[in-house]
Amino acid sequence: MNGSDFFKERGKMQKFIQYTPTEILFGKNTQAEVGKEVKKWGGSRVFIVYGGGSVKKSGLLAQVEEALEKEGLAYEEFGGVKPNPRMAYAQEGVEKAIEFGADFLLAVGGGSSIDTAKAIAHGVANPDWSLEEIWGGEIILTRSTPVGCVLTIAAAGSETSDSAVLTNEETRKKGGISTSLNRPKFAIMNPVLTYTLPKYQIACGIVDIMMHTLERYFIPNTRNQITDEIAEGVLRVVIENGKKGLENPTDYDAMSEIMWAGSLSHNGLTGLGRAKDFSVHKLGHALGAKYDKAHGATLSAVWGSWAEYVYKNDEERFAHYAKKVWGVEEEDVAKAAKEGIRRTVEYFREIHMPTNLKELEIGEVSEEDLRELSMAATLNDTVKLSKIKELTAEDVYQIFRKAAEK
């Protein structure tokens, strides 16, 4: 089956609304513009959200604050955000931001800092509601506080996305909310700011970018050639430049490609005209909440098992992916589909990412643990996952079990 035949046999492109309003400032030294950007978007009292001490040690935080001072803007720091950002810590940030009188949230860091800033922004604008109520879907957001970001990690794509993810430590649940109010006003993207990242974080980011694209790609019964071409291009670029960036993290061209691909992978563009899945993310969130492992690692640890479990329900889609992204020339659809899965898993292994639960290094995973994970991923079997094959809690258990036994 050639490319044109594939699209003739698929369903029609679905109607969609495209809304990607985030202003991008891309390139070297763009962090110097942060004060002007905040001021342009109406900010006067800036609540700066960041993670560990790296932004201080690198001097980036000082540069950001200097740029704010030049524009006469008041600011307050809120550091200490952790990977798999905590809801309780974000709620603490809400209270401090309100006390400070913040009218603008500025995230300096990666997805965890940006998602925390988004959460604080919602809390500041809606002080009568807790973040637990907002994340629990008990209310519909109609307002928020503006957010901007200075990106230091190419991974989550939160700098342009409509989503934000938090972990509730009390309930041990990790989940997100999607709303146009999550879109940052601006994103400053200087690839040089990624140069000091550990290679493990770079690799986790590569996986996350690929997953944000793949979760929108494996949707059955769609006919959307231009969206597919964009998604396939993002995947090929990340795969190629991911290796280069890991070999030399100061390769500006490679890190630029990865950073821009990260934004494109999660701003909605790679999924326009079709439904959205994110079933693998549900599995990864369950693992992240229980074991507090890096998000990208939890995704690579289960993707192969998920793909092997569902691919027979849409072999042609997986075969198409194999040919367009990995250059597989096998004409037999079933063989091509399996080869595409194999090459994806092998790539994860090549960049030193886990491809099963043992490699995720979470210790012994009991039968009880597997059942608990499957229930967490499906909200106690109330939500069916995946568009290719409807997955119940029992199906998800089988996937986790497969990932545990590899």
Please provide a written account of the structure:
By secondary structure, the chain is an alpha/beta fold. It has two domains: 3-12 and 200-405, Dehydroquinate synthase-like - alpha domain (Dehydroquinate synthase-like, alpha domain), CATH 1.20.1090.10; 29-189, Rossmann fold, CATH 3.40.50.1970. 50% of the residues lie in helices and 10% in strands. It has helices at residues 3-8, 34-40, 54-57, 60-70, 87-100, 111-125, 131-135, 199-217, 225-247, 252-266, 279-291, 295-310, 315-326, 333-350, 367-377, 393-405; strands at 23-26, 45-50, 74-78, 104-109, 147-151, 163-168, 173-178, 186-189. It has a six-stranded parallel sheet, sandwiched between helices. A hairpin with a 4-residue loop joins strand 6 and strand 7. One of its GO terms (cellular component) is cytosol. This is Iron-containing alcohol dehydrogenase. Pfam families: ADH_Fe_C (PF25137), Fe-ADH (PF00465). InterPro entries: ADH_Fe/GldA, ADH_Fe_C, BDH-like. Residues 21-191 form the Alcohol dehydrogenase iron-type/glycerol dehydrogenase GldA domain.
Topology overview:
Blueprint (H helix, E strand, L loop, with lengths): L2 H6 L14 E4 L7 H7 L4 E6 L3 H4 L2 H11 L3 E5 L8 H14 L3 E6 L1 H15 L5 H5 L11 E5 L11 E6 L4 E6 L7 E4 L9 H19 L7 H23 L4 H15 L12 H13 L3 H16 L4 H12 L6 H18 L16 H11 L15 H13 L1
> How many domains, as an integer?
2
- Shape estimate: globular
CATH class (first level) name of the largest domain: Mainly Alpha
The overall average pLDDT, rounded, is 94
The third-level CATH topology of the largest domain is Dehydroquinate synthase-like, alpha domain
Number of strands: 8
Strand order across the biggest sheet? 1-8-5-4-2-3
Q: Approximately how much beta-strand content do the residues carry?
A: 5-15%
Keywords: Oxidoreductase
GO cellular component, one term: cytosol
Pfam families: ADH_Fe_C (PF25137), Fe-ADH (PF00465)
Protein name: Iron-containing alcohol dehydrogenase
